[in-house]
Amino acid sequence: MSKQTNTKPEELLLYAVTDRHWLNGATLISQVEAALKGGATFIQLREKNLDDEAFYKEALEIQKLCRNYKVPFVINDNVELAKKIGADGVHVGQSDMEALDVRKVLGDDKIIGVSAQTVEQAELAEKHGADYLGVGAVFPTGSKDDATEVSFETLKEICEHVHIPVIAIGGITRDNVVKLNQSGICGIAVISAIFGQTDIEAATADLKNQTKKMLGE
Ligand SMILES: Cc1ncc(COP(=O)(O)OP(=O)(O)O)c(N)n1
Ligand SMILES: Cc1nc(C(=O)O)sc1CCOP(=O)(O)O
């Protein structure tokens, strides 16, 4: 990995993906702030069932918070909303808008993250202008119904074949993150290991330490 992209590998160390499934009466903004206080280095707003107006208001609120913490903020799938509020970028999957088309909408300076499960998908995403790849699911996950498992060997192969940063996602916890050692990733993305925890700030700080250890930092 060595290509210049719109995000730095260190920003991708501990990437928090939101999920209102874990709210339990709390607000998303308070949970994201706890993750930021604990040291999350990147935030993705992932909403699957929110109406446009509520999604817009929430995105503006979380964007403001992330700016205060100087942490990149991207939106899952919704390129139009990312463009409208001037978010730092978007994350798209294999069945979403193609990276080349996202780039046309957002311009050269925004961050485009793309999900990849195979080397072919990873190479194509890089060629089409992705700034980083999210590869998973590296472990079984309860947070995404249609996740398909990606083996350690495939993760490693993807890292070897692209020149953009790769992060792993899916079922990662403080206890199993060590298993990703020597894969070539520069960080991890999680939902439940942060937002499913009682003390989000402490869990984030702990996971960040474990991730740094795994990376040999
Ligand atoms: C960092 C990161 N990596 C992968 C994904 C999965 O994206 P996608 O395949 O589009 O699936 P949904 O998240 O839309 O269910 C992600 N969101 N973030
Ligand atoms: C959003 C997402 N994408 C995945 C993929 O495999 O692409 S797995 C996943 C869910 C990650 O949540 P948790 O950390 O709770 O397992």
What is the topology?
Elements: E1 14-17, H1 28-38, E2 42-45, H2 52-68, E3 73-76, H3 79-85, E4 89-92, H4 99-106, E5 111-116, H5 119-127, E6 132-135, H6 152-161, E7 166-169, E8 187-190, H7 192-195, H8 200-215
Parallel strand pairs: 1-2, 1-8, 2-3, 3-4, 4-5, 5-6, 6-7, 7-8
Helix pairs in contact: 1-2, 1-8
Q: Shape, please?
A: globular
What is the CATH homologous superfamily assignment? Aldolase class I
| Ligand types | ligand LCLJCK34, ligand 3NM
CATH topology: TIM Barrel
How many H/I helical runs?
Answer: 8
Mean pLDDT: 97
How much β-strand is present in the residues?
15-25%
Biggest pleated-sheet summary: 8 strands, parallel, barrel
Note poorly predicted spans.
Answer: none
What is the straight-line distance between the termini?
Answer: 17 Å
Structure description:
The protein has helices at 28-38, 52-68, 79-85, 99-106, 119-127, 152-161, 192-195, 200-215, and strands spanning 14-17, 42-45, 73-76, 89-92, 111-116, 132-135, 166-169, 187-190. The protein has 217 residues and is α/β, with parallel strands linked by helices. The chain has a single domain (9-215), classed as TIM Barrel (Alpha-Beta Barrel), CATH 3.20.20.70. It has an eight-stranded parallel β-barrel, surrounded by seven helices. Residues 17, 115, 134, 136-137, 141, 143-144, 147, 169-172, 190-193 line the site of the ligand Cc1nc(C(=O)O)sc1CCOP(=O)(O)O. This is Thiamine-phosphate synthase. Its EC number is 2.5.1.3. Its cofactor is Mg(2+). 2-[(2R,5Z)-2-carboxy-4-methylthiazol-5(2H)-ylidene]ethyl phosphate binds at residues 141-143, 171, 191-192.
